[in-house]
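QA checklist item 7 of 12: single-chain prediction sanity check.
[x] sequence parsed
[x] length recorded as 184
[x] structure emitted
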Amino acid sequence: MSLSAVLSVPATPAQPRMRLRAAAIIERAGQVLLHRAEGDPFWALPGGGIEPGECAGETLVREMQEELGLAVVPGALACVVENFFVYLGAAYHETGLYLQVHPEPGGLLDQSAGPYEGVEGRRRLEFAWFDRVTLPGLDLRPPFLRDALARERQGGVLHIVYRDPAPPGGAAADAPAILSESPV
Protein backbone atom coordinates (compact mmCIF):
# COMPACT_ATOMS: atom_id res chain seq x y z
CA MET A 1 0.00 0.00 0.00
CA SER A 2 1.35 3.40 -0.92
CA LEU A 3 1.96 6.18 1.60
CA SER A 4 -0.60 8.37 -0.21
CA ALA A 5 -3.27 5.68 0.26
CA VAL A 6 -2.52 5.48 3.97
CA LEU A 7 -2.60 9.26 4.36
CA SER A 8 -5.96 9.56 2.57
CA VAL A 9 -7.76 7.22 4.96
CA PRO A 10 -10.15 9.31 7.05
CA ALA A 11 -9.46 9.25 10.76
CA THR A 12 -12.02 7.42 12.85
CA PRO A 13 -13.11 9.60 15.74
CA ALA A 14 -12.37 8.07 19.11
CA GLN A 15 -15.32 6.66 20.98
CA PRO A 16 -16.27 8.74 24.02
CA ARG A 17 -14.99 7.46 27.32
CA MET A 18 -17.86 6.02 29.36
CA ARG A 19 -18.00 7.14 32.97
CA LEU A 20 -20.37 6.52 35.88
CA ARG A 21 -20.25 9.38 38.41
CA ALA A 22 -21.95 10.27 41.67
CA ALA A 23 -22.40 13.96 42.49
CA ALA A 24 -23.31 15.52 45.83
CA ILE A 25 -25.89 18.28 46.09
CA ILE A 26 -25.01 19.80 49.47
CA GLU A 27 -27.10 22.81 50.45
CA ARG A 28 -27.48 25.11 53.42
CA ALA A 29 -29.36 28.38 53.93
CA GLY A 30 -29.78 29.16 50.22
CA GLN A 31 -26.24 28.10 49.33
CA VAL A 32 -24.75 25.19 47.38
CA LEU A 33 -21.30 23.63 47.97
CA LEU A 34 -19.16 23.49 44.81
CA HIS A 35 -15.57 22.56 44.15
CA ARG A 36 -12.92 22.99 41.50
CA ALA A 37 -9.57 21.40 40.82
CA GLU A 38 -6.37 23.41 40.71
CA GLY A 39 -5.95 24.75 37.19
CA ASP A 40 -9.62 24.43 36.21
CA PRO A 41 -11.46 27.70 35.63
CA PHE A 42 -14.86 26.14 36.30
CA TRP A 43 -16.77 24.87 39.35
CA ALA A 44 -18.68 21.59 39.71
CA LEU A 45 -20.59 19.59 42.26
CA PRO A 46 -18.33 17.45 44.45
CA GLY A 47 -18.28 13.75 43.68
CA GLY A 48 -16.41 11.20 41.67
CA GLY A 49 -16.36 7.96 39.78
CA ILE A 50 -18.40 5.07 41.12
CA GLU A 51 -16.14 2.07 41.70
CA PRO A 52 -17.23 -1.52 40.97
CA GLY A 53 -19.44 -2.88 43.75
CA GLU A 54 -20.10 0.59 45.16
CA CYS A 55 -23.45 2.38 45.19
CA ALA A 56 -23.70 6.13 44.53
CA GLY A 57 -24.17 6.98 48.22
CA GLU A 58 -21.07 5.00 49.19
CA THR A 59 -19.11 6.80 46.47
CA LEU A 60 -20.05 10.18 47.89
CA VAL A 61 -19.14 9.17 51.44
CA ARG A 62 -15.75 7.88 50.19
CA GLU A 63 -15.06 10.87 47.92
CA MET A 64 -15.86 13.49 50.59
CA GLN A 65 -13.66 11.61 53.07
CA GLU A 66 -10.77 11.30 50.57
CA GLU A 67 -11.00 14.84 49.21
CA LEU A 68 -12.00 16.87 52.26
CA GLY A 69 -11.63 14.52 55.24
CA LEU A 70 -15.29 14.99 56.15
CA ALA A 71 -18.16 12.63 56.86
CA VAL A 72 -21.43 13.10 55.00
CA VAL A 73 -24.78 11.33 54.95
CA PRO A 74 -26.18 10.51 51.50
CA GLY A 75 -29.86 11.24 50.91
CA ALA A 76 -32.39 10.92 48.11
CA LEU A 77 -31.66 10.70 44.41
CA ALA A 78 -32.46 14.10 42.87
CA CYS A 79 -31.36 13.72 39.28
CA VAL A 80 -30.02 11.31 36.67
CA VAL A 81 -27.87 13.07 34.09
CA GLU A 82 -26.59 11.82 30.75
CA ASN A 83 -23.74 14.25 30.10
CA PHE A 84 -21.78 14.42 26.84
CA PHE A 85 -18.70 16.68 27.04
CA VAL A 86 -15.04 17.17 26.19
CA TYR A 87 -12.45 17.61 28.94
CA LEU A 88 -8.71 18.08 28.27
CA GLY A 89 -9.25 17.00 24.67
CA ALA A 90 -11.05 13.73 25.46
CA ALA A 91 -14.74 13.10 24.71
CA TYR A 92 -16.83 11.70 27.57
CA HIS A 93 -20.25 10.13 27.89
CA GLU A 94 -20.98 10.34 31.60
CA THR A 95 -23.98 9.01 33.46
CA GLY A 96 -24.35 10.92 36.70
CA LEU A 97 -26.39 10.06 39.77
CA TYR A 98 -26.93 13.32 41.67
CA LEU A 99 -27.91 12.78 45.31
CA GLN A 100 -28.96 15.14 48.06
CA VAL A 101 -26.17 14.90 50.65
CA HIS A 102 -26.08 16.22 54.21
CA PRO A 103 -22.98 17.15 56.20
CA GLU A 104 -22.50 15.44 59.54
CA PRO A 105 -24.26 17.64 62.11
CA GLY A 106 -21.75 19.82 63.97
CA GLY A 107 -19.02 19.20 61.38
CA LEU A 108 -16.88 21.69 59.46
CA LEU A 109 -19.44 22.29 56.69
CA ASP A 110 -22.06 23.14 59.32
CA GLN A 111 -19.80 25.34 61.42
CA SER A 112 -17.56 27.23 58.97
CA ALA A 113 -18.21 29.58 56.07
CA GLY A 114 -15.29 28.17 54.06
CA PRO A 115 -13.61 28.06 51.63
CA TYR A 116 -12.07 24.66 52.33
CA GLU A 117 -8.97 23.04 50.87
CA GLY A 118 -9.04 19.47 49.67
CA VAL A 119 -7.03 17.11 47.53
CA GLU A 120 -7.65 14.60 44.76
CA GLY A 121 -4.55 12.57 44.08
CA ARG A 122 -1.87 15.21 43.52
CA ARG A 123 -4.29 18.01 42.58
CA ARG A 124 -5.45 20.54 45.10
CA LEU A 125 -9.18 21.16 45.33
CA GLU A 126 -11.02 24.24 46.49
CA PHE A 127 -14.50 23.88 48.01
CA ALA A 128 -16.73 26.92 48.55
CA TRP A 129 -20.35 27.84 49.27
CA PHE A 130 -22.21 29.84 46.61
CA ASP A 131 -25.52 31.65 47.02
CA ARG A 132 -28.12 30.23 44.64
CA VAL A 133 -28.76 33.69 43.16
CA THR A 134 -25.11 33.93 41.99
CA LEU A 135 -25.08 30.58 40.16
CA PRO A 136 -26.38 31.87 36.78
CA GLY A 137 -23.26 34.06 36.44
CA LEU A 138 -20.80 31.33 37.46
CA ASP A 139 -18.74 29.05 35.19
CA LEU A 140 -20.39 25.86 36.45
CA ARG A 141 -20.16 22.49 34.70
CA PRO A 142 -22.29 20.99 33.35
CA PRO A 143 -23.79 24.41 32.51
CA PHE A 144 -27.43 23.36 33.01
CA LEU A 145 -26.67 23.28 36.76
CA ARG A 146 -26.57 27.09 36.89
CA ASP A 147 -30.34 27.22 36.48
CA ALA A 148 -31.21 23.85 38.01
CA LEU A 149 -29.47 24.60 41.33
CA ALA A 150 -30.57 28.25 41.43
CA ARG A 151 -34.21 27.28 41.95
CA GLU A 152 -35.84 25.43 44.80
CA ARG A 153 -36.47 21.76 44.11
CA GLN A 154 -40.07 20.64 43.96
CA GLY A 155 -39.36 16.95 44.60
CA GLY A 156 -39.26 14.07 42.19
CA VAL A 157 -36.30 12.76 40.21
CA LEU A 158 -35.18 14.64 37.11
CA HIS A 159 -33.76 12.92 34.04
CA ILE A 160 -31.53 15.31 32.10
CA VAL A 161 -29.62 14.79 28.87
CA TYR A 162 -26.96 17.44 28.28
CA ARG A 163 -24.56 17.81 25.34
CA ASP A 164 -21.84 20.44 25.30
CA PRO A 165 -22.29 22.82 22.37
CA ALA A 166 -20.29 21.85 19.30
CA PRO A 167 -17.10 23.79 18.64
CA PRO A 168 -17.24 26.35 15.79
CA GLY A 169 -17.56 24.54 12.47
CA GLY A 170 -18.73 21.32 14.18
CA ALA A 171 -22.09 19.64 13.97
CA ALA A 172 -24.90 21.16 15.99
CA ALA A 173 -25.38 19.66 19.42
CA ASP A 174 -28.64 18.88 21.12
CA ALA A 175 -29.85 21.47 23.58
CA PRO A 176 -30.00 20.42 27.21
CA ALA A 177 -33.26 18.70 27.88
CA ILE A 178 -35.15 17.70 30.98
CA LEU A 179 -36.75 14.51 29.80
CA SER A 180 -38.89 13.68 32.80
CA GLU A 181 -39.63 14.47 36.39
CA SER A 182 -41.27 11.79 38.44
CA PRO A 183 -42.33 11.74 42.06
CA VAL A 184 -40.12 9.85 44.47
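[x] summary fact logged: Strands lie at 17-25, 27-28, 31-37, 47-49, 72-87, 90-103, 116-120, 123-131, 157-163, 177-182.
[ ] second reviewer sign-off
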